From TrEMBL:
Pfam families: FolB. It comes from Methylobacterium isbiliense. Keywords: Folate biosynthesis, Lyase. Pathway: Cofactor biosynthesis; tetrahydrofolate biosynthesis; 2-amino-4-hydroxy-6-hydroxymethyl-7,8-dihydropteridine diphosphate from 7,8-dihydroneopterin triphosphate: step 3/4. Its EC number is 4.1.2.25. The keyword Lyase applies. Residues 4-117 form the Dihydroneopterin aldolase/epimerase domain. Catalyzes the conversion of 7,8-dihydroneopterin to 6-hydroxymethyl-7,8-dihydropterin. It comes from the Bacteria. It catalyses: 7,8-dihydroneopterin = 6-hydroxymethyl-7,8-dihydropterin + glycolaldehyde. This is 7,8-dihydroneopterin aldolase. The gene is folB. Belongs to the DHNA family.
């Protein structure tokens, strides 16, 4: 299966379980791997036979910045569901949410959640 990749789209948002996370906000990185057949788009050189990576990025950014989630799992799930609903050419999508400033008592670069969802039926 072919893929369209959006790497580490940075957003400033207010997601988290802790009150401080919701009040202050923090940076998140969103990565998308959209799976679909790109043969027709590549052969015809026609965006109508593909999915615009700009539109994918805009959808993910809008969800992350306009809505609030306690869990990054819920953010990833919402992005995946809305992308599959918005773009009929997608067969599946993997969404990764990186939270580099996660408030955990450890020295780490961050935490991530990655999910893959496929179109049903």
């Amino acid at each position: 299966m072919d893929r369209i990749l959006v790497h580490r789209l940075a957003v400033f948002a207010h997601h988290g379980v802790l009150e401080e996370e919701n009040r202050l906000g923090q940076r998140f990185y969103l990565s998308l791997e959209a799976r679909l057949d790109l043969r027709e788009a590549g052969t015809r050189d026609d965006i109508a036979a593909s999915v615009s990576y700009a539109d994918l990025a805009a959808l993910a950014s809008r969800i992350a910045t306009e809505r609030r989630f306690r869990l990054i799992e819920a953010l990833a799930e919402t992005i995946a569901a809305e992308a599959l609903a918005a773009f009929s050419r997608l067969d599946a999508i993997t969404v990764r949410v990186d939270k580099p400033a996660a408030p955990v008592p450890a020295i780490l670069d961050g935490v991530s959640v990655e999910i893959t969802r496929q179109r049903r039926g």
